[in-house]
Amino acid sequence: MRSPTPHQTMRSDPGQREVDGSAGEVERGVEFQPAELEHRTDSLPMNPYRSPETEPTVPSKPASALCPVCGHSVSRWRLGFPGCRCETCKRRLGLKNSWQASSMSTATAVVCFASLMFFEAIPTSKPVVFGLHVLVFLMCGTLWFHLWGQPALRTWMGAASRTALARERARFQDETDRA
Prior knowledge:
- The chain is of the alpha+beta class.
- 39% of the residues lie in helices and 12% in strands.
C-alpha cells in the first residue's frame, strides 16, 4: 500500500485511524456513521460525482454571440451569412451595426484619407493607389462590422424594431410554455 501525500488522508473502514503525512498517525476519535448522513445531508458539501439535479446554465459550446430572442449561443461566423437561423427558436438572425464597429470604420476612413493625401492619389492620376486605398477601407470596414456587430432579429426590411423583438420574445416564451 502506498503512503498518502501530506495533504491526503486514508480511511477504508470506520475504525481505522487517519494517516496524516506531516504528523504521522493521528486518531481523531470520530467514526463514520451512515445513519448520521441521512439527517445531515443539507449541511454536507455537494458530492462532485453526483449528477446535478438541474441542467447547467453554461452553454455546451463556446460562442461569441447570443440570440436576442431566446438567449441561445450562436456562432458569430454563422451570423455573417444571410440565411442564419437560431438553432433553438428558429428565428432569422443577422448582424447590426454597433458603436465600436462605427468608430473603427471612421478611424479607418480618416487613416485612408490621410494616406490618400500623403500619396497625392486621386482617381485620374494614380488609379491603382486610389483603388488600393478603397479596397483596404472596404475590407477593414467589413472586418470591423463582423468583429463588433451585434446579433439582431432579422425582418424583411433589415433589423427588427424593439417592439417586434419584444413580440417575438413573448411568442417564443408562449411556445416554450406550451411544450
